[in-house]
Amino acid sequence: MVKFLAKDIILFFWMKINKNLALLIWFIYLIFIFFLIPLFCKKFETLLIPQIILPNYVKLLGIVFIIFGFILGFWCFVVLWKQGEGTPSFLYPPKKLVTTGPYKYSRNPMTVGAWLIFIGESIFLQSPLLFMFFLFVVIPVSIIWIIKYEEPFLEKNFKNTYREYKNIVKKRFI
């Protein structure tokens, strides 16, 4: 009885630590991807590429893309947290398959949100280097990640439910 109780207590605290660790790692990842990489690209592109000056109304379009991307990403996170009972991180993955909210329209809406943010940052910062990074690094890595890791993980964990979901929601936008 005591051994069983101790095991449950350890599991409970590991899950709490795991959840907090997953959230921390996800937050650090977001800072790196959406703030540090764009700043790095903007800082060092002047050495490589001539500066592009865009009109303010075009920069405003970049802000619109960024806002929509963040809203979509936040919506995805909330739906994963509340309905899936997990995070986008593999350290604390969702326990339930989420097929509502933005996931009703796209199998990878968080990726779509991230892509919108990158496009918006490229426009707003007037950064051809960041846009090239998006085209030649972010898009291929995202697609490879989804095909090689995310989809097999979801099929393994959610089996037929995920296969049915794949038949209903095709790869719209990714």
TrEMBL record:
Localization terms from the record: Endomembrane system
Sorted UniProt keywords: Membrane, Transmembrane, Transmembrane helix
UniProt keyword annotation of Transport present: no
GO CC terms: endomembrane system
Membrane topology recorded in Swiss-Prot or TrEMBL: Multi-pass membrane protein
Listed transmembrane segments: 21-40, 60-81, 129-147
GO molecular-function terms, A-Z: transferase activity
Alphabetized Pfam families for the sequence: PEMT
InterPro entries per UniProt: Phopholipid_MeTrfase (IPR007318)
Predominant cellular place of this UniProt entry's protein: membrane
PANTHER family on file: PROTEIN-S ISOPRENYLCYSTEINE O-METHYLTRANSFERASE (PTHR12714), PROTEIN-S-ISOPRENYLCYSTEINE O-METHYLTRANSFERASE (PTHR12714:SF9)
Full protein name: Isoprenylcysteine carboxylmethyltransferase family protein
